[in-house]
Design a protein that fits this description.
This is PBCV-specific basic adaptor domain-containing protein. Keywords: Signal. Residues 1-22 form the signal peptide. The chain is of the alpha+beta class. The chain has a domain at 31-102. Helices cover 49% and strands 20% of the residues. The chain has helices at 2-22, 29-57, and strands at residues 59-65, 71-74, 80-83, 89-92, 98-99. A 5-stranded antiparallel beta sheet has the order 4-3-2-1-5, covered by helices on one side. The N and C termini lie far apart (93 Å).
Length: 103
């Protein structure tokens, strides 16, 4: 009788603990990969949208480029800027502009 009670107690304990382990996700990096990919997609979308808006609304400065060869735009207030990889406008002073290399 004691053995039957021990087996029943062990089986009940096993059934109570098993659902807790079934809910754990072993590949915890999947959420990180999804998050990073989502950020990349958002930044690229923002960059393309900002460059498109700048191309339509602002003038392009043909003779100068930004620090890493970016296209320079001039807004309606005569401020110089380029669009970075996150889609933000980075304003520059005229002295920070670089001559466009000859091709």
């Amino acid at each position: 009788m004691k053995n039957l009670f021990k087996i029943a107690l062990f089986a009940a304990g096993t059934f109570m603990v098993s659902p807790g382990f079934a809910q754990t996700h072993k590949d915890s990096t999947l959420g990180g990969k999804i998050s990073k990919t989502t950020k990349k997609i958002g930044h690229k979308t923002s960059e393309i949208a900002a460059k498109g808006a700048a191309t339509v609304a602002d003038k392009k400065y043909a003779g100068k480029v930004g620090p890493n060869g970016e296209t320079i735009y001039i807004d309606k207030y005569s401020h110089y800027f380029y669009v970075n990889k996150k889609g933000h406008r980075v304003y520059l002073k005229k002295s920070e502009l670089i001559d466009k290399p000859a091709q």
